[in-house]
């Protein structure tokens, strides 16, 4: 039993010569087609380097284009020469110059000898093909494609649109059911000779000459016509990315290729010296005998495709940065945003950091600077506290902060005095946990010593800004986890909402709070709000505060019970 190797080469001819000599040394006849575009200065030394091999042939050269009929024609020419010159060949294995045998040649020979009438070619109908890239499945068999997709993209697309607009459809030759699959096959002599000697071959060739990417459908379709037994899989490991481009294997893929148990791998980087040394120099110990199973490494490739197309959560890759919505999560980890808490409670940042273990910052989006924890001017990842740098791209500033500090939970303060460009970003981030005490921004105004006319003007502006921010947080598209209390409701019973906030933002389970942070003195705050009303402003975000000195709504006092003796 002998396996014949048909090799299509067009580049890295030095490596192709190594592989061809390897096949020949282990008893495999070789027929090589070299792309006509390869210049004589490269082609002639290649031929000379293999001139001592008795069972090796070179065939007439064609100029081969990606996805063109010329690839099929080149394989036809080489296969005909193989069948003619080497009658002992029972199977013909199609490979490329960048293919690399992963297992000893004798294992491949023995494997095929046990399956003498089996054709190994991936061949599935178009409706069952999930991997086509480019939007053409059945249409590749019913339309004409005279223009190269790579060289003349506009003509290609225009001609496809024109055929669709007039409803043009080609007639599929009688007796053929279009199939598709990998172009790297291993066919029995019987099946391959039947395909090449078919009396209707001229008609089939004319039809497939105008099919899109015929090297993925010609043999795959005709094998179904003549084969008595098809294993719809390729013995060559060939992986493609999400764009339909083949994955290239490098030296660091050595162990992964060994795990695949496949006989041949494509496409190998010409400079991957470790791979060629491992599988060509000492092939007997290269891999164990096992059934080829590329599925063992499919998980790795699936992760690679996901990483390429989606990236890691919160890490905006350069290839997707300009396209909004292409990121895999805008931030990489959960974080907390508290609004109004630092206005209502004294030294709230220190209390919260001590109570929860969070990394608590001040107002990261304050107008003058980013208030990092402990007043640091430079924070993790060399983030500057410069407001100008931060506001150049506030979204990138926040996502970088969360990415650079992953592993510890971040928390920062926010309010209507801060830059509002980040508001929509916060509302749409699933990692954001936002707690808001509405109207607490009025407390610094209450304690300020400004003219009341100025206070009223500032209060009206801040209330308008906070109201717009609350609309974002309550929008149907908002994804952040948001809790909102009016200041009056929060002040009435602060322990319950504080406990709720702590439980949600803390990175670890917390005990019940024993004490709350010290609240600012709100004596007279109700009258302050009444004065704003008297000046024509309506401070509605604070809730219902009494006008008296006690900021909490008054409750009727209960009289002590007593007994009446009779």
Describe what this molecule looks like in 3D.
- The chain is built from 22 helices and 19 strands.
- The protein has a five-stranded mixed sheet with strand order 3-2-1-4-9, with helices on both faces. The protein has a five-stranded parallel sheet with strand order 14-17-13-18-19. Strands 5-12-11 form a three-stranded mixed sheet.
- Strand 11, helix 10 and strand 12 form a beta-alpha-beta unit.
- Helix 3 crosses helix 7 and helix 7 packs across helix 9.
- The protein has 566 residues and is of the alpha/beta class.
Chain-wise SSE layout:
Blueprint: E1 2-9, H1 13-25, E2 30-34, H2 40-49, E3 56-58, H3 69-85, E4 89-96, E5 100-101, H4 105-113, E6 119-120, E7 124-125, H5 139-142, H6 153-166, E8 179-180, E9 186-188, H7 189-196, H8 201-208, H9 218-226, E10 230-231, E11 236-238, H10 254-260, E12 264-266, H11 273-281, H12 298-309, E13 335-339, H13 341-344, H14 348-356, E14 359-363, E15 378-379, E16 383-384, H15 387-392, H16 394-404, E17 410-414, H17 423-427, E18 432-438, H18 442-446, H19 452-473, E19 481-486, H20 487-492, H21 495-505, H22 525-534
Parallel strand pairs: 1-2, 1-4, 2-3, 6-10, 11-12, 13-17, 13-18, 14-17, 18-19
Antiparallel strand pairs: 4-9, 5-12, 7-8, 15-16
Helix pairs in contact: 3-7, 7-9
């Amino acid at each position: 039993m002998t396996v014949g190797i048909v090799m299509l080469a067009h580049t890295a001819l030095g490596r192709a010569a190594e592989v061809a000599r390897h096949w020949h040394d282990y008893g495999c006849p070789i027929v090589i087609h070299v792309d006509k575009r390869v210049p004589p200065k490269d082609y002639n030394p290649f031929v000379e380097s293999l001139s001592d091999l008795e069972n090796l042939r070179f065939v007439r050269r064609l100029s081969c284009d990606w996805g063109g009929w010329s690839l099929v024609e080149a394989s036809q020419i080489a296969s005909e020469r193989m069948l003619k010159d080497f009658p002992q060949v029972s199977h013909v294995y199609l490979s490329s110059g960048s293919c690399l045998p992963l297992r000893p040649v004798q294992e491949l020979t023995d494997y095929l000898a046990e399956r003498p009438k089996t054709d190994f070619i991936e061949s599935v109908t178009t409706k069952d093909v999930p991997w086509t890239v480019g939007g053409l499945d059945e249409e590749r068999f019913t339309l004409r494609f005279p223009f190269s997709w790579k060289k003349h993209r506009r003509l290609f697309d225009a001609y496809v649109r024109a055929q669709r607009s007039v409803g043009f459809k080609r007639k599929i030759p009688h007796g053929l059911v279009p199939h598709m699959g990998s172009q790297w096959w291993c066919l029995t002599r019987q099946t391959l000779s039947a395909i090449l000697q078919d009396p209707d071959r001229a008609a089939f060739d004319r039809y497939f000459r105008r099919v899109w990417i015929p090297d993925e459908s010609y043999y795959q379709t005709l094998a179904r016509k003549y084969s008595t037994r098809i294993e719809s899989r390729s013995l060559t490991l060939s992986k493609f990315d999400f764009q339909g481009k083949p994955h290239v294997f490098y030296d660091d893929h050595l162990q992964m290729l060994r795990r695949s148990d496949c006989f041949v791998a494509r496409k190998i980087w010409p400079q991957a010296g470790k791979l060629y040394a491992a599988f060509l120099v000492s092939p007997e110990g290269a891999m164990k005998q096992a059934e080829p199973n590329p599925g063992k490494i499919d998980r790795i490739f699936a992760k690679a495709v996901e990483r390429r197309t989606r990236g890691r959560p919160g890490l905006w890759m350069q290839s997707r940065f300009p396209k909004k919505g292409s990121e895999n999560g805008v931030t990489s980890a959960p974080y907390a945003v508290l609004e109004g808490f630092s206005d209502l409670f004294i030294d709230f940042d220190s209390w919260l950091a001590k109570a929860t273990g969070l990394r608590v910052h001040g107002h990261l989006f304050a107008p003058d600077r980013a208030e990092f924890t402990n007043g640091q001017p430079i924070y993790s990842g060399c983030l500057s506290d410069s407001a100008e740098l931060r506001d150049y791209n506030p979204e990138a500033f926040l996502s970088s902060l969360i990415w650079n500090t992953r592993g510890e939970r971040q928390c920062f303060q926010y309010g209507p005095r801060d830059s509002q460009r980040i508001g929509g970003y916060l509302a749409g981030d699933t990692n954001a946990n936002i707690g808001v005490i509405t109207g607490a921004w009025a407390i610094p105004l209450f304690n300020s010593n400004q003219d009341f006319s100025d206070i009223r003007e500032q209060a009206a502006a801040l209330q308008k800004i906070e109201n717009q921010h609350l609309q974002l947080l309550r929008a149907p598209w908002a994804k952040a986890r948001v809790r909102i209390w009016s200041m009056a409701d929060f002040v009435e019973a602060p322990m319950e909402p504080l406990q709720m906030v702590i439980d949600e933002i803390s990175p670890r389970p917390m005990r019940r709070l024993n004490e709350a942070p010290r609240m600012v003195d709100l004596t007279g705050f109700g009258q302050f709000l009444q004065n704003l009303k008297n000046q024509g402003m309506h401070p509605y975000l604070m809730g219902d505060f009494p006008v008296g000195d006690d900021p909490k709504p008054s409750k009727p006092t209960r009289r002590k019970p007593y007994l009446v003796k009779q």
